[in-house]
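Page 47, continued from p. 46.
Same chain as before, 416 aa.
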Amino acid sequence: MRTELGEVIQHRAAISEVLRAIANSPHDLQPMLDTILDSATRLCRAEVGGFRLCEQEGLRLVAVTGHTSWSPPKLLEHSSYIGQFAAGRLPVHIPDLATHELYRRGDPYMLNTVNVGGFRTLLTVPMVKDEEVIGLLIVARTRLQPFTDFEIELVTDFAAEAAIALEITRRERQYREAQMGLAHANRLATIGQLTASVAHELKQPLSAAAMGGDASLRWLTRDPPDIEEAQRSVEHVINNIKRACDVIDRIHGLVRKNAPRMERLDINDVIIEVITLSQSEALKNDVTVRTQLTDHLPRIRGDRVQLQHVMLNLIINAIQAMSGLADGKRELHINTGIIESEGVRIAVRDSGPGLSAETLQRLFELHDKAPRHGHGPVDLPVNHRSARRTAVGDPLRAAGCSVSVYDPGDLGTVHK
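Result:
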């Protein structure tokens, strides 16, 4: 009785450990499989355990634990005896591999398992989802000792948990891909609104480069050629071409469909890059952009493209909100600073008509296109996974709306 109680307690502890692994890394399958495999081999007193996942070519080894000098093949064909066991969709327990029919018939992989690997007792349990085999959990002993009914039931439970873990990571991957696609589409839409401004940003340095090239030719065709002036003109051409390349690089960075990449960065640099990109749009709408960027801010951890996208949306929304103003100043203020116990703060404030109470409540909902009193869309698809959102400001005040972003170091990003 005491032994059975101890086994139940160990089983529950192992399940809790697996659940923690799933909760801690829902997007990463490997830690989950490793945890399940370690628990299965430990509780069943098996020397070796392994996970194989079904692929079109066969069953691929994705996790292994235990100590053995034998290296099992990475990929087993579906026609192998392991593949045949998996296809049966039921647990297969072989108390003595050396007396099994496949061993007596000289099956090559079975012979290697016994003669080279030194295994005598084997248990395989398929992982099944919707009546389809998606993988296989294997535990083995080098000693001749059949697994008990309790141990077989235990491994069966672990295989079911592994199937759940696979489904969780699959759905998590689909969610992330959909999220990336949405973010990419939003960035493309934002860049589309800046087409005229981008063309203007490119036209200026390219026109200057062309003029510099003409000037260089004139200096060179003089008699005698003025090499020093020609050299200066060529240097101006090079600098203007670099300016154009910088504009193209910034746009390319925004429209690329890449996975988020977390890095330490200077938020002031991010803001300056976005202001440069949207400068022509501000001039076209008679909006004055004023900045007060605090020097020597601590570097924050974030994805540069996502932060640029958020800032670009805020700036474009502010410009559009002020474009319909008949009177009054059109000013956009962008400030950075440090809030004690909070971290780095970014504040964007415009002199537009502000937000209605209804819009304020739905400001950060995905796909929200609610108008700001009829002037410009509000499109702030901030990553749900890395940010909490709260709009700050009085929606009834004519001074517009303020949105601040806080980054409390390694704890994540908080939008207020």
